[in-house]
Amino acid sequence: MGLAPFLLFALAFMLLPAGAILFGSFQDAKGAFTFLNVAHLFRPGILRSYLLTIEVSLVTALGGAVFGFLLAYAVTQGGLPKTVRGFLVTFSGVASNFAGVPLAFAFISTLGRVGLVTVILKEAFGISLYDAGFNLYSFWGLSLAYLYFQLPLMILIITPALDGLRKEWREACENLGASPLQYWRHVALPILAPSLLSSVILLFGNAFGAYATAYALTGGFINLVPIQIGAQIRGDVLHDPNLGYALALGMVVIMTLSILGYTRLQKRASRFTRS
Amino acid sequence: MIVARNCARSRNSAGPRNSAGPRKVWSWLWLVLGSLYFLVPLLATFFFSLRGKKGVLSLVAYAHVFKDPQFLTTFTFSLEMAVLTIAAGLALIIPTAIWVHLRVPRARVLIETFALLPFVIPPIVLVFGLIRLFSRPPFALVTSPALLVAGYVVLSFPYIFRAVDAGLRAIDLRVLTEAAQSLGAGWGTTFFRVVLPNIRVALLSAAFLTFSIVVGELTLAVMLAWPAFGPYMALMGRDLAYEPAALAIVSFLLTWGSIAFMQMLSRSIAGRGSFTGGVH
Amino acid sequence: MAYVELIDLVKHFGRHTAVDSMNLGIMEGELVSFLGGSGCGKTTTLRMIAGFESPTSGRIRIRDLDVVDVPPNRRGVGMVFQNYALFPNMTARQNIGFGLKVGGKPSAEIDRRVNEMLALIHMEELGSRFPHQMSGGQQQRVSLARALAASPRVLLLDEPLSALDARIRVLLRGEIRAIQRQLGITTIYVTHDQEEALSISDRIVVMRDGKIEQLGTPFEIYNRPATAFVASFIGSLNLLSAVVVEPDAGTLAVDGQRIAAAAPIQGAAGRMVRLSLRPEMISLANGSAGNNHLTGTLSNVVFLGSIVRLVLRIGGNELFLDTFNNPHLALPAIGARVTAGFPPEACILLE
Predict the structure, then answer these.
(1) CATH architecture assigned to C4-233
(2) What is the b/e burial string over C205-239, where b = at least 16 CB atoms within 10 angstroms of the residue's CB?
(3) Would the pTM count as exceeding 0.95?
(4) Are the Cβ atoms of C71 and B18 closer than 8 angstroms?
(5) pLDDT tens profile B62-79
(6) Closest Cα of chain B to C12: distance in Å?
(7) What are chain B's domains?
C-alpha cells in the first residue's frame, strides 16, 4: 500500500512517543506498574499548576474569541472596504505564527519594566503600571501576550463561518419586521453558535499546550503545566520523569477532550451552511 | 392618482440602508483598536531595538547581533534543519496525498485524524515522548539531527498535507492523471511532468510555512539540545537588553516575509484551508 | 388609483445607471411581472420597493403613502428571495411564524396562522422539517408562506423559481398564481423567463437598460410588440429584410416576392424594413384567398416534440414556421421547393 511510508512514520514519531508517555505515566522508577504518578497529579502544587494553565487558556480563549469575532465581523459584514479584509487575513496568518521567543521579546520591549509603553505611561501620563500591580511576567501579562496569537487564530477560523452568514437572511429578517437585535438573537447567533463554541475550544487547547512563549517570557518561573513538563525533561527539578509523564498524560487528555468537542461542534456548524 | 412629480428629494445612497451606518462606525472602532493592539508591540520592539546606544537612535544592537558568530551558526543550523524538513516532509507527504486522492479516498479520514495529533500532542509532550523512546539502543536517535528533523516533520505535517491536498484538489488530480494515461504517459512521467508542475504553488506555500515554523522553533530544539536559532534567541534574552528586540524584529520580518509570500501564492489555489497556528 | 406607484424612480451605482426614470402604477390585486435580461434593472427596482436599496431620486408610494424613508422592516411588504433565504436554524413552522413572532403576536395566534399557511401551500405534514431536510420546491413554498404569513400589503418575488428545475418550475408557478388570486394580493414578480411571465401575469413590464420597453398584457406584449427588442425577447420570431414597394397599399417585397401588410406603411418606396413574423402564424400554404405566399427551399426540419419546425431559405433570408406534430402527415423533403402562407395581419414591421 502506498500509504505505508507515511503510516510507518506516523507510528514511529507520533503514536509510539505518545504511547511511551502513556506507559511511562503508569510506571515507577523501576518500571513496575503503578497509579502513584497519576495520584500525584492531584497534589496541591500540581493541581494549582493545572488550574493556572486552565485559567490562562480560558481567559485567552474567551478574550481571543470575543475580540477576534468582533474584528472578523467588522471586516466581513461591517461595511469596511474589501482591501482591509485581505490585509487583516494576511496579517492574521503572520501573527498566528509570531509566537514563542520573538513574541516574548516584543512584549518585554512594550510592557516590561523598562518597556516603551511602560515608560511612556509613566513619563507622559504619570501612570506607573508596575506600582499599580501589573506585572508582565505573571498571569495577566502572559495572557496579554498569548492574545497576540489567539486573536489572529480566531479571525482565521471564524471568517469562513461569517462568510456563510448569508446576506439574504438578514434581509429576510428585516423584511419580516425584525430589528437588528432580533436578527442577532433569533438568526445570526444561533447559526454561528457551533462555530463560536468550537473556536473557543480550539483556542483553549492552543493556549494550554503553549510552551515557548511562556518559557521565553518568564524564564520558566511560572507554574504552568507545559513549563512543569519542560522542567521535568531537563531535570531542573527533583528528577521524577514518571511524574513528568503523568503531567504530559494529563495534558494530552485535556487536549483530546478539546479536539473532540471541536470536531463535534464543527459538524453541527456545517449543517447550517449546507442548506 | 397622479402625485406631484417634482418634489422628489435626491437621496444619495450607497446600498443597503437602515443599520448600515452605525454598523460602520462600530466596525471602524474595532478595527482601530485591533490595529493598535497589534501594531504597538511591533513599534515598541522596533524602537527598543534602536536604543543600543545611549540617547541616540542607532542600529548598534543590530550590528551586535549580525556580528555575533553564534547568530550565524545557529541561524544556518536552523536553516539547514528547515530545508531538510521541507525535503523530507514533501517526499513523505506528496506521495501519500496522491495515494489518498487516487486510490484510497477513505483513508482521508485517517490522515486527517493524524493531522490533528500535533494539536493533541503539543511539542512539549512530543519531545518528551521522543526522548523517552529514542534514548536507548537500538534506536538511540536522540543525539542525531534526524530526530529533530522527524519532530519538525510531525509539527509541520498538518500544514504541508493541507497545502498539498488543496493543490491536488484544485487541479482535479484524478481527471488529469486519467488524461495523461490515455495519452500514453507512464506513472513517472505523469508524476514529474503533469502533477508536480501543477502543484508548484501549493508546494511553495508548504515550503514557506514550514520554513517559518522551523526557523523560530524553540521547544524541540532546546529539549534536544541543538544549537538552533530559537534557543539562541532565548539565551540572548537572558543577558542582553536591546539585542533581543533586534532579534525579534529580524525574526518578525523573516516570518512576515515568508508567510505573506506564501499567502499571496496560495490565493491562487482555490479552496485552500487556513494556514494557522504554528508552534508556541 | 394605483396601489403601488413608482414615480421618476432613478438608481445610480457610482457611474452606472441601473434604473433610469421609471414610472409605473400597479393596481390592487394585480400580478405584474418585471421581465428582462440580467442587468436590466428589474431586481434593483424590486429591492428599492422592498427597502434594501435607496433610490437615488424618485418616489415610491404604497397605498398613497410615501415609503422611501420607511426602513425595510416596517414597510409591510413580503419578499420571496431567489435562493429562498430560509433560516437554517428554524423549522418550517418557525420560519413561517417568524414575522409574527417578532411582531409580538401571541403564540396561539401564531400557531393558528402558521397552520393556515401550511394548508395554503399544501405542506401540513412537513411543518417540523428543517430547510436542509426539504427539497428546493418545498423550501420555496415555505419561503412564500413566510412572506404571506404577516398579511403584507404587497408581495415581491425575486426570480423565485430560477433555482429549480424545469418541471417543478411549471408546477410551482401555477401554484403561486393560484394563491395570489385566492388572496387577491398585489404582487410584483421579477423573472427573466418570458414563458413564466406570459403564463401568470396580469400585465408585463419588459425592461431593458433600466427603462421600460413596453408595458401591457401578455397578449399585447406577444402579439403587438412595440420594439424590436420586445419582439425578439418574447417568443420566437422570424426577422426578414423587406423592401417597401407601395407604402399606401402596404405592399412589400421579400426576395422579389410580393406580400401585403395589413396597414399602410410609413415612408417612401424602396426603403428597407425589418419584417417580423411569428412562426405559428405561418403555414404550409394552400391557396387561402387573401393570404401572402413566400416560396423557398426547405433547408431543415427540426422535431421539437409537439411542434415540428420547418426552416425555409428564401433568397438571403431564413424563415421558420411551426406546425403541430402529426405522425400521419407526410412532410416535404429537404431541398424541395416549399411555399409558406400567412395572413397580412401577421406582419409586424420594425425599423
Answers:
(1) 3-Layer(aba) Sandwich (3.40)
(2) bbbbebebbbbbebeebbbebeebbbbebbbebbb
(3) no
(4) yes
(5) 888 888 898 889 999 999
(6) 9
(7) 60-266 (1.10.3720.10)
